[in-house]
Amino acid sequence: MKAVQVTGYGGIDKLELVDISIPTPGKGEVLVKVKACAINNTEIWMREGAYGTGEKSGWRPEGVQFPRIPGSDITGEIVGVGSNVSETVIGKNVVLFPFTSSGIEGYEHISEDMSFIGSEYDGGYAEYVVWPSELCYDMPLSTYEESAVFSVSGLTAWHMVEQIQAKPGETVVVTGANGGVGSLNVQIASNVFESKVIAIVGDMGLEGRMKELGATHVLSYKSPSLADEIMEVNGGPVDSVLDVVGDALFATSISALKNGGKFCISGSAGGQKTELDFRTVYLKHITLYGSVLGTRDEFKRMLDAITAGKIKPVIDRTYPLEKAGEAQTYFKNSGKLGKILLLPEK
């Protein structure tokens, strides 16, 4: 099969298109013919070594074992089974839950042995992948492409919104609102939890599209008085912030929060370190949440909401598998809206 491997930490020159053997499913596993794989920050940061220090970076302390096939947002067709798996699942179209864990129900995502597909396991930048049968779910939509945009970004966004306990009528600020996680934060907070959403973007040309997704107001992060603008359109401080940017908007977010407000972060594309005045946090009674991925029950609730039409796929563009480096480069550009997909059969 064709696959794209990461050969070590570094730039896109570390992505190599190879011909390797099709993997064989083991006990409890299935062989999935990959139809679509969406790109996430996670596989780019894994390649760049951003999840650790020195020579070790990944979801696990020991770092990634190279070569590794990245890719975690995967849809495809089950075409083979290992032992202890019924052949009746062959031909089923599935979306893959993106990690394994021995954590108890509701805590799978924070278990110390949580292992991620595309980092600890070979992932979806390939024509085939093996995965546990119990972690393969029915596709929520009719096409592989549309169903592939939710797994990691959607689960992360859903978990973020549940963590802040978003409620009808509350105001939620969403930073990076045009990205994969951000655009889903907008939809989930507004269309599922019925909160008012203030979407923060760089290109105000996206205002119409963001409002179509559910945003009540759209503001530019380039404004020198963004915190004031947020409070002006809201009529006062906001209830919560869902952030994927990090340092660049941290001070603004904290400033715009009400007393007792909630700040949830799941990304740091705008800077991984920041200045924090603890006095602001405790005097305003702010709750800080770190968030990534989520639970299997949250994944199921998300898929149900997608099937019900409350969350819609947003796709920016697609690339063939052999252009994975070009796709990752484009992914890091600002101004895009939604997900970037790799299609092995394109």
UniProtKB/TrEMBL annotation:
Cross-referenced InterPro entries = ADH-like_C, ADH-like_N, ER, GroES-like_sf, NAD(P)-bd_dom_sf
* Protein name according to UniProt: NADPH:quinone reductase-like Zn-dependent oxidoreductase
Q: Which Pfam family is an annotated match for this chain, by its short name?
A: ADH_zinc_N
Residue span(s) of domain Enoyl reductase (ER): 10-342
| The keyword Kinase appears for this protein | no
Keywords of the record: NADP, Oxidoreductase
Q: Which domain of life is it from?
A: Bacteria
Specify the species.
Rossellomorea aquimaris
The answer to whether UniProt assigns keyword Ubl conjugation to this entry is no
Q: What are the recorded GO MF terms, alphabetically?
A: NADPH binding; oxidoreductase activity, acting on NAD(P)H
